[in-house]
Design brief:
single chain, about 130 residues, alpha+beta, three-stranded antiparallel beta sheet, 5 helices, about 20% strand
Length: about 130
Protein backbone atom coordinates (compact mmCIF):
# COMPACT_ATOMS: atom_id res chain seq x y z
CA UNK A 1 0.00 0.00 0.00
CA UNK A 2 1.42 3.40 -0.97
CA UNK A 3 2.06 6.06 1.66
CA UNK A 4 -0.75 8.63 1.47
CA UNK A 5 1.23 11.35 3.30
CA UNK A 6 1.57 14.68 1.51
CA UNK A 7 4.98 15.21 -0.08
CA UNK A 8 7.19 17.70 1.77
CA UNK A 9 7.03 21.29 0.58
CA UNK A 10 10.17 22.64 -1.14
CA UNK A 11 10.24 25.60 1.30
CA UNK A 12 9.52 26.36 4.97
CA UNK A 13 6.13 27.87 5.85
CA UNK A 14 6.04 30.40 8.70
CA UNK A 15 3.47 31.91 11.00
CA UNK A 16 4.05 35.42 12.32
CA UNK A 17 3.21 37.39 15.44
CA UNK A 18 3.54 41.13 15.95
CA UNK A 19 3.69 42.69 19.41
CA UNK A 20 3.67 46.42 20.06
CA UNK A 21 4.67 48.47 23.07
CA UNK A 22 3.64 52.08 23.59
CA UNK A 23 6.87 53.97 24.31
CA UNK A 24 5.25 57.34 24.90
CA UNK A 25 6.47 58.91 28.14
CA UNK A 26 3.11 59.70 29.71
CA UNK A 27 2.50 59.34 33.41
CA UNK A 28 1.35 55.85 34.37
CA UNK A 29 -2.33 55.45 35.21
CA UNK A 30 -3.33 56.02 38.80
CA UNK A 31 -3.71 53.01 41.08
CA UNK A 32 -7.31 51.87 41.72
CA UNK A 33 -8.88 53.70 44.66
CA UNK A 34 -11.68 52.07 46.69
CA UNK A 35 -13.08 55.51 47.60
CA UNK A 36 -13.47 56.44 43.92
CA UNK A 37 -14.98 53.01 43.15
CA UNK A 38 -17.53 53.47 45.96
CA UNK A 39 -18.48 56.90 44.60
CA UNK A 40 -18.95 55.47 41.09
CA UNK A 41 -21.32 52.92 42.61
CA UNK A 42 -23.17 55.77 44.35
CA UNK A 43 -22.24 54.37 47.77
CA UNK A 44 -23.88 50.99 47.19
CA UNK A 45 -20.62 49.40 48.42
CA UNK A 46 -18.43 51.03 51.05
CA UNK A 47 -14.76 51.75 50.33
CA UNK A 48 -13.83 49.38 53.18
CA UNK A 49 -15.90 46.56 51.68
CA UNK A 50 -14.40 47.11 48.23
CA UNK A 51 -10.83 47.13 49.58
CA UNK A 52 -11.46 44.01 51.70
CA UNK A 53 -13.26 41.98 49.01
CA UNK A 54 -10.96 42.92 46.12
CA UNK A 55 -7.47 42.99 47.67
CA UNK A 56 -5.67 42.25 44.39
CA UNK A 57 -7.18 45.33 42.75
CA UNK A 58 -7.16 47.69 45.74
CA UNK A 59 -4.32 46.42 47.91
CA UNK A 60 -0.81 47.81 47.96
CA UNK A 61 0.63 47.55 44.45
CA UNK A 62 3.72 45.40 44.00
CA UNK A 63 6.95 47.32 43.55
CA UNK A 64 7.40 48.21 39.89
CA UNK A 65 9.85 46.14 37.90
CA UNK A 66 12.27 47.79 35.53
CA UNK A 67 10.86 47.90 31.97
CA UNK A 68 13.79 45.86 30.64
CA UNK A 69 13.05 43.11 33.18
CA UNK A 70 9.36 43.12 32.19
CA UNK A 71 10.25 42.89 28.49
CA UNK A 72 12.77 40.11 29.12
CA UNK A 73 10.13 38.10 31.02
CA UNK A 74 7.63 38.53 28.17
CA UNK A 75 10.18 37.66 25.46
CA UNK A 76 11.16 34.52 27.37
CA UNK A 77 7.49 33.44 27.44
CA UNK A 78 7.29 33.84 23.66
CA UNK A 79 10.55 31.94 23.24
CA UNK A 80 9.13 29.03 25.22
CA UNK A 81 6.24 28.96 22.72
CA UNK A 82 8.74 28.65 19.85
CA UNK A 83 8.61 32.28 18.65
CA UNK A 84 11.86 33.73 17.26
CA UNK A 85 12.20 37.51 17.16
CA UNK A 86 13.26 38.49 13.65
CA UNK A 87 13.14 42.27 13.97
CA UNK A 88 11.86 45.40 15.61
CA UNK A 89 10.83 48.79 14.28
CA UNK A 90 9.51 51.99 15.79
CA UNK A 91 6.24 53.24 14.29
CA UNK A 92 5.25 56.56 15.86
CA UNK A 93 4.97 56.00 19.60
CA UNK A 94 4.86 52.20 19.13
CA UNK A 95 7.80 49.85 19.23
CA UNK A 96 6.87 46.86 17.08
CA UNK A 97 8.46 43.44 17.59
CA UNK A 98 8.21 40.85 14.82
CA UNK A 99 8.33 37.12 15.58
CA UNK A 100 8.06 34.00 13.49
CA UNK A 101 8.07 30.25 13.98
CA UNK A 102 7.73 27.34 11.60
CA UNK A 103 4.11 26.75 10.67
CA UNK A 104 2.94 23.55 12.26
CA UNK A 105 1.00 21.38 9.85
CA UNK A 106 -2.59 20.77 10.81
CA UNK A 107 -3.26 17.23 11.92
CA UNK A 108 -4.87 15.15 9.21
CA UNK A 109 -8.48 14.29 9.82
CA UNK A 110 -9.07 10.62 10.41
CA UNK A 111 -11.53 8.98 8.03
CA UNK A 112 -14.89 8.22 9.63
CA UNK A 113 -15.34 4.66 10.88
CA UNK A 114 -16.69 2.18 8.34
CA UNK A 115 -19.98 1.92 10.24
CA UNK A 116 -20.52 5.68 9.89
CA UNK A 117 -19.98 5.53 6.12
CA UNK A 118 -22.95 3.23 5.64
CA UNK A 119 -26.27 4.95 5.09
CA UNK A 120 -28.52 4.45 8.10
CA UNK A 121 -31.75 2.58 7.51
CA UNK A 122 -34.75 4.86 7.66
CA UNK A 123 -37.30 3.81 10.21
CA UNK A 124 -40.97 3.57 9.37
CA UNK A 125 -40.50 2.88 5.66
CA UNK A 126 -41.38 -0.57 4.36
CA UNK A 127 -40.23 -2.15 1.11
CA UNK A 128 -43.22 -2.80 -1.11
CA UNK A 129 -46.23 -4.92 -0.26
Amino acid sequence: MADSADPPLPFQLWEYRVIHINVENNAPPEAPNPQVASQKLQGMLSPEFIAREFPQQYGAPPPPRHPAEQLQFFLNLLGKEGWDMVGSERVGVLLMFFFRRPLRPLPKALPPPASAQEAPAEEGLADGP
